[in-house]
Amino acid sequence: MVFFDIDGTLLDHKSAEFTGVKLFYQNYRNFFGMDFNEFYSIWCKLSEKHFEKYLAKKCSFEEQRIERIKELYLKRNINLSSEEALEAFDYYLRNYELSWKPFNDVIPCLKKLSKLKMGIISNGDLGQQKLKLDKMKISHYFVDIVAAGEFNVSKPHTGIFEIACKRNGEEPEKCFYVGDTIETDIIPCEKIGMKGIWINRDNKTLQNKNIKIIISLKELANVLCENVSQSLDY
User: Fold this and answer.
1) DSSP of 140-162, one letter per residue?
2) Which residue pairs, CB below 8 angstroms and at least 24 apart, start in 66-72?
3) Strand (E) or helix (H) holding 176
4) Which backbone phi and psi does 116 adopt, to 5 degrees?
5) Which of 71, 95, 102 is nearest to 85 (CA)?
6) Is the Cβ–Cβ distance between 32 and 157 less than 8 Å?
7) Cis peptide before 172 (omega within 30 of 0)
8) For residues 198 and 216, is the Cβ–Cβ distance under 8 A?
């Protein structure tokens, strides 16, 4: 079985986020008094900070949205209520969602692999991740979506990979995981015996020669074919 990450692997999250943040900034910039580059940097740091709290079960998915906007406005000594923060976030969210799109290599890759059993392992909220797959029109390729929002574990904890394999009746040694982050995706999945494949879209240099690397999903079918007789069932 072949499992995939979503953001940065199938969905061009960074591009969608950038568009959403830029339109948010243009609409609300009178509150902040800073240029866009500074604003975008602060936004990304706050997004990561509060999403990590969500993954650690310190807040709900909606609460992390509210708290990041509240903290953003506090940079300019503006106190928002939870309702005001959620309203502001919804402006970003609408534009973020309208910008969701798969990388150009995604649909050709999934079509080529359509006879294989495929699934998702993601750190996101299950509802939002399902919506992403629906919007990209690729949901039908996957038999299961395992999202951290359902469980008490998230990547890089190996538990979420174990849950995905067990839930699908698969031995880890016969499964692959394709992701865009070495520390979060590749290293932990390989700890339980899965075969990690790093999608290195930015063609970064890596010293670890033991990690299987592709720079495009166009290469994935060939990589799987090298192992199909040993590891995959059609």
Assistant:
1) GG-SEEEEGGGSS--TTSTHHHH
2) 71/46, 72/42, 72/43, 72/46
3) strand 176-179
4) -90, 155
5) 71
6) no
7) no
8) no
Longest dimension (CA), the chain: 61
Higher pLDDT, 216 or 231: 216
> Could you give the domains of the chain?
2-12+101-231 (3.40.50.1000), 13-98 (1.10.150)
Which of 90, 92, 85 lies closest to 20 in space, CA to CA?
Answer: 92
Output the pLDDT for position 225.
82
The Cα 148–Cα 160 span in angstroms is 7
Task: Identify residue 138 by its one-letter amino acid code.
Answer: I
Check: CB of residue 113 under 8 Å from CB of residue 2.
Answer: yes
What distance in Å separates the CA atoms of residue 187 and residue 197, rounded to the nearest whole number? 10
Q: How far apart are CA 104 and CA 90, in angstroms?
A: 28
Cα–Cα distance between 152 and 145 in angstroms, integer? 16
The alpha carbon torsion through 234, 222, 146, 56 (nearest 10 deg) reads: 160
pLDDT per position as a tens digit, 198-220: 999 988 877 677 889 999 999 99
**Cβ distance 4 to 105 under 8 Å?**
no
Number of residues that make up the chain? 234
Written as six digits, the tokens of 23 are: 């339109």
